[in-house]
Amino acid sequence: MAVDSEKIKQLRAMTSAGMMDVKKALEETDGDIDKAVQLLRERGIIKAAKKMDRQASEGAVFSYIHHNGKLGVLLELNCETDFVAMNEKFAELGKNIAMHIAASAPQYIRAEEVPEETIAAEREIQKQALIEEGKPENAIEKILEGKIKKFVSEISLLDQPFVKDPKTTIGDLIKEGVTALGENISVARFTRYSIK
Q1: Which of 13, 19, 113, 175 would be 108's cystine partner, CB 3.0–4.6 Å?
Q2: Distance in angstroms (rounded) separating the CA atoms of residues 74 and 149
Q3: pLDDT at position 17, please?
Q4: Do 130 and 143 form a contact (C-beta atoms < 8 A)?
Q5: Is the CB of residue 59 less than 8 Å from the CB of residue 178?
Q6: Which of 1-5, 9-13, 89-93: highest mean pLDDT?
Q7: Can you tell me the distance from the alpha carbon of 60 to that of 87, in angstroms, rounded to the nearest whole number?
Q8: Selection from 196, 177, 148, 151 nearest residue 52 by Cα
Q9: Among the listed residues 151, 159, 146, the one whose alpha carbon sits nearest the alpha carbon of residue 119
Q10: Nearest CA-CA partner of 158 in 52, 80, 69, 67
């Protein structure tokens, strides 16, 4: 199928992918832009995954201060080279993540960092709520697993849906940055300040 040049331009603008990759994705999805984006994302994530094992020892600190001055975030975002650390796309990624942290208040970077005692306490709270709702005992454990998984993803930055595009997680957003910039990118740490 011949692909419309306007669709190629549109998809390139949306994804920053190469001309041939964009054209091929559009051909494979019969010109469906949404499916082509998904296809590029899947392929990009595969490329990004290989890069995510590399050491990210350069980077920059980004800040976000909410307009009322009562909420602020400092974020250390790392990459492999100072060249990428000074790149506009890297800066945009850092600013977006800092703004997301301000809006979504994650407590941890990764799900693996959530302490077992925090999970155990939440499990007990959810279990009591399910018992009070009158859920059958044989269904409680299965329901609990889903609730705990959701709880952990809600407090872990990389698993949270990006506030500007809830179909994309912060982890996916970083993988897109890895693909676009060609280097490993990782969140080293963040602090969220709030005056109530």
Answers
A1: 113
A2: 27
A3: 67
A4: yes
A5: no
A6: 89-93
A7: 10
A8: 177
A9: 151
A10: 52
Q: Yes or no: say if 170 and 154 are a contact pair by the CB < 8 Å rule.
A: no
User: Tell me, what's the pLDDT at 93?
Assistant: 97
The H-assigned helical ranges of 18-136 are 19-28, 33-51, 82-85, 88-104, 116-132
- How far is CA 117 from each of CA 63, 64, 76, 90, rounded to the nearest angstrom? 31, 31, 27, 36
DSSP type of residue 4:
P
Crossing angle of helices 19-28 and 33-51, in 10° steps, is 130
Tokens of 151: 């709880």
Pick from 68, 61, 69, 19: nearest CA to 40: 19
**Which one-letter amino acid corresponds to residue 32?**
D
User: What mean pLDDT is predicted for residues 159-177?
Assistant: 94
- CA atoms of 110 and 170, how far apart (whole Å): 11
C-alpha torsion angle, residues 51, 53, 55, 61 (rounded to 10): 70
Q: Which domains does the chain have, with CATH numbers?
A: 5-51 (1.10.8.10), 58-109+156-194 (3.30.479.20), 115-154 (1.10.286)
- Residue bearing tokens 């930055």: 157
CB atoms within 10 A of CB 63: 12
Query: For the chain, what is the total number of helices (H) and then of strands (E)?
Result: 8, 5
Which structure tokens are listed for 150?
A: 């959701």
